Amino acid sequence: MDANASSFKIILGSASVARRKILAEMGYEFTVMTADIDEKGIRKEKPEELVMAIAEAKADAIISKLQTIDNREKDTKPTILVAADTAEAILPKLPVGHYKMDAEPTLLITSDQVVVYEGMVREKPSSKEEARQFIKDYSGGHAATVGSVIITNLKTGFRKGGWDKVEIYFHEIPDEMINKLIEEGTVLYVAGGLIIEHPLILPFIKEVVGTTDSVMGLPKALTERLIKEAL
């Protein structure tokens, strides 16, 4: 994989720490960019269609951001002002503005995830109360995660995506544990308030039908396959 990794560059279009960790575990070096989009403005009936549409919108937003940086570079020579994480991640390594002419391709990876409970799509909780209700619902029951991955080859314009679904079954989760989870706060920032790898929730996971990396936001097998197809 390392021999491979030198023949192309990767931009991970996500602010997710879990996704960074998974991509690094896969042996890839990458830079990070984030997409500023209104996810709530994108609505689809099926969860699979929703996560694909949001991942596409993220890719489009990042490409547009790259083109803006490119145009600014062409117009003027002064310092480029971009968000801190973007600047630090991209400017030193990525010859932005030359990625289409670059000898080696740059692959942009974007993804999205929702939780499905009793046929209803759940995104990030809007409040502590909603997060508490979400977790109470999972107690003794089950939910699924539906996650998408879209890879865009910035040199050729080729784009390919796919989605992955994982079913999660829970033991009863005591109220005091739910309160601890809400106080700790991480559950407020993830789809459906669901984090199976969290030390407070892990003991209450009965069964996972699928892979943990997919639940965490980046299915490795799907990502690997799409990277190969995009090159």
| CATH class value | Alpha Beta
Secondary-structure element string: HEHEHHEEHEEHEHH
| CATH architectural arrangement | Alpha-Beta Complex
The outline comes out as elongated
Number of domains: 1
Low-confidence region ranges: 1-5, 79-98
For the sheet with most strands, the description reads: 7 strands, mixed
CATH topology: Maf protein
Radius of gyration: 19 Å
- The percent of residues in helical segments reads 25-40%
Number of DSSP E strands:
7
How far apart the termini lie comes to 14 Å
**What structural category arises from helix and sheet content?**
alpha/beta
Instruction: Please work out how many helical segments DSSP would assign.
Output: 8
Rounded mean pLDDT is: 87
Residue fraction in strands: 15-25%
GO molecular function: nucleoside triphosphate diphosphatase activity
Keywords: Hydrolase
Protein name: Maf-like protein
Organism: Vitis vinifera
Notable features of this structure?
231 residues, alpha/beta, disordered N terminus, seven-stranded mixed beta sheet, 22% strand, Maf protein, 7 strands, 8 helices
What this model shows, in words?
With 231 residues, this protein is α/β, with parallel strands linked by helices. It has a single domain, classed as Maf protein, CATH 3.90.950.10. It is 37% helix and 22% strand. It has 8 helices and 7 strands, in the order H-E-H-E-H-H-E-E-H-E-E-H-E-H-H. Strands 1, 2, 3, 4, 5, 6 and 7 form a 7-stranded mixed β-sheet that branches. A hairpin with a 5-residue loop joins strand 5 and strand 6. Helix 5 crosses helix 6. The two termini are 14 Å apart. InterPro entries: ITPase-like_fam, Maf-like. GO terms for molecular function: nucleoside triphosphate diphosphatase activity.
